[in-house]
């Protein structure tokens, strides 16, 4: 009986190894559809690229001396989006996703480090397309996340994002007592061009 279990285990390991070795060579057999740097989506002409996994460093994207960020991370996409679409350069171009939102800035005031107006989740100001949506860190990702709001309609916002399993996602949007709240316990708020 013990020998049968050992043989079965070895066959499973060999089969799994063969799958990993050949999956990219045999169409339709779990082939990874994209590789690091492949374009996945776009918003207003700004491309969302494949990170190729959540870890690792693909190098820094610097344009005309301006630090856009680590290639294919969420922060790199939103900063590249604002740079390409609005020619916006953040005065402080460093920091993790959650650092884009300054908790010391009052709702509707200017976030001087980012050169953007900042709104706290639960603001009287409704989120708009092109706003940056900032999420706080969590146990699985202490750096947080940031995306671009692509659409606002009937009780939800759609976002476009980089370095996640999907390039697009939605969040509930509620108006409660004159204040707009985007669903999700980690949503800190949104930033927009002044």
Keywords:
eight-stranded antiparallel sheet, globular, endopeptidase fold (from Nostoc punctiforme), alpha+beta, two-stranded antiparallel sheet, 194 residues
What this model shows, in words?
The model is unreliable at 9-29 (pLDDT under 50). This protein has two helices and twelve strands, in the order αββββαββββββββ. The strands form three sheets. An eight-stranded antiparallel β-sheet has the order 5-6-12-7-8-9-10-11, with helices on one face. Strands 1-2 form a two-stranded antiparallel sheet. The longest helix is centred in the first third of the chain and has 21 residues, at 2-22. It is globular. It has helices at 2-22, 74-86, and strands at 39-43, 46-49, 60-63, 66-70, 110-111, 116-120, 132-135, 145-153, 156-160, 168-176, 179-182, 187-192. By secondary structure, the protein is an alpha+beta fold. It has a single domain (39-192), classed as endopeptidase domain like (from Nostoc punctiforme) (endopeptidase fold (from Nostoc punctiforme), Alpha-Beta Complex).
